[in-house]
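Narrative of accomplishments. A recurring question from our advisory board has been how the design workflow behaves on a single, concrete structure rather than in aggregate. To address it, we present the structure tokens for one chain from the evaluation set, followed by the sequence designed for it. No filtering or post-editing was applied between the two.
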């Protein structure tokens, strides 16, 4: 079975940026260029100058299965992914039970195979039960198919445990992902600590709760030589420290989430729990620092931290409601807004969704190189649409972007050469 995507603006960051055709055969990229030799009977997609890019790679999603299937399953999460242009997603281990052993990893991979939508790659826990005490069997997790280790959401507080985790991770050649938060400094907080939290009378989470853990983790990465990936950095201090660490050659990469470069803590004024996430929305100065970090390459990756919750959970009071928002189906337009604003070139924006995340985790994804898996998106970067959470493929609708008029629409998503999503919205 052959597919040809004709007359697209093909953008494969660092490799190809121009008008051409893309030929897919047997699930792989077979050729890229002009006037290709197209086999008879090939199915044709007319791209008409629209963007043809590698499928996006999200290093940070929560698919809630096993344990919280009412929020999201691997099936519904994968459907949400491909609707947002993501063909590969990495699932955090804070399921129930926690993904701290081979059996859970294998279960997740089996569910992903059954869904047959996106490539779903589990991230294993650093410690058993993500309790921060005893290391999980990192070698077993790696062999079972985990692509990284993390105790996301319940970060390892004990620096000795983290050091040992990094030493094992180095030995098994797997990156360590950390949600940088000092749980003691952050305890009880539900928004950024500052003038607004004081005005609203809400307990705050200081920027320092993130900064001190970034500093610790960078030091431990320097000590051990392990590959460190910092999840969802949100503060000016984090950006500054990552920049400095990179300048000294420390093996660190960083990600930012669309909500942290789009919204500030001002949004919390309405006590809208859809503005409650962890790390919290920060100040305007932090947001500027995140944008500058994305612009100058300090922040390599854009990831969603897709965190589905049921409506009744988010309908509680601001202090009680759980942290997190869904993100897979809004990430593309929010990222393209940075291009519109002149912060990123189109190529750099696509890079942070494709090649850069693949590289951070050492995945053979995020590229249109001949021979690569044909994970491809066709995008209309100019198409305007209104975010309607009731239309999300995700089981959950907890987004602060409902009703936003945005630009940049995913038209078709291919995974392994199979079309797995077609936009119902005519572009
Ligand atoms: Zn996190």
């Amino acid at each position: 079975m052959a597919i040809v995507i004709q007359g697209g603006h093909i953008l494969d960051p660092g490799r190809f940026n121009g008008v051409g055709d893309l030929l897919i055969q047997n699930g792989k990229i077979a050729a890229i260029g002009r006037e290709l030799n197209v086999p008879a009977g090939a199915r044709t997609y007319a791209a008409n100058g629209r963007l043809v890019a590698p499928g996006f790679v999200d290093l940070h999603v929560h698919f809630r299965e096993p344990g919280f299937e009412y929020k999201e399953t691997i099936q519904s999460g994968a459907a949400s992914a491909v609707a947002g242009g993501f063909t590969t997603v990495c699932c955090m281990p804070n399921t129930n039970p926690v993904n701290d052993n081979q059996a859970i990893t294998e279960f997740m991979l089996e569910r992903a195979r059954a869904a047959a939508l996106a490539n779903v790659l589990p991230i294993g826990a650093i410690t058993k039960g993500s309790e921060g005490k005893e290391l999980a069997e990192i070698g077993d997790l790696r062999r079972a198919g985990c692509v990284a280790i993390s105790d996301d959401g319940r970060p390892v507080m004990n620096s000795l445990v983290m050091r040992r985790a990094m030493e094992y991770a180095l030995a098994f050649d797997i990156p360590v992902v950390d949600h940088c938060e000092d749980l003691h400094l952050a305890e009880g907080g539900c928004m950024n600590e500052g003038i607004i939290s004081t005005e609203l009378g809400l307990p705050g989470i200081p920027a320092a709760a993130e900064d001190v853990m970034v500093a610790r983790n960078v030091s431990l990465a320097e000590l051990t030589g392990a590959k460190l990936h910092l999840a969802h950095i949100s503060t000016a201090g984090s950006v500054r420290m990552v920049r400095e660490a990179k300048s000294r050659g420390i093996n660190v990469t960083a990600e930012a989430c669309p909500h942290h470069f789009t919204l500030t803590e001002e949004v919390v004024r309405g006590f809208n729990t859809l503005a409650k996430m962890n790390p919290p929305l920060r100040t305007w100065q932090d947001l500027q620092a995140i944008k500058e970090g994305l612009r100058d390459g300090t922040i390599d990756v854009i990831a969603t931290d897709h965190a589905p919750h049921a409506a009744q959970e988010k309908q509680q009071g601001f202090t009680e409601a759980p942290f997190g928002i869904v993100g897979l189906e809004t990430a593309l337009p929010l990222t393209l807004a940075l291009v519109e604003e002149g912060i990123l070139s189109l190529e750099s924006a696509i890079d942070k969704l494709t090649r850069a995340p693949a590289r951070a985790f050492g995945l053979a994804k995020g590229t249109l190189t001949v021979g690569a898996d044909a994970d491809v998106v066709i995008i209309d970067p100019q198409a305007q649409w209104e975010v309607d959470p009731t239309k999300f493929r995700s089981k959950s609708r907890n987004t602060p972007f409902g009703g936003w008029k945005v630009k940049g629409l995913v038209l078709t998503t291919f995974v392994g050469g199979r079309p797995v999503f077609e936009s119902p919205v005519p572009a």
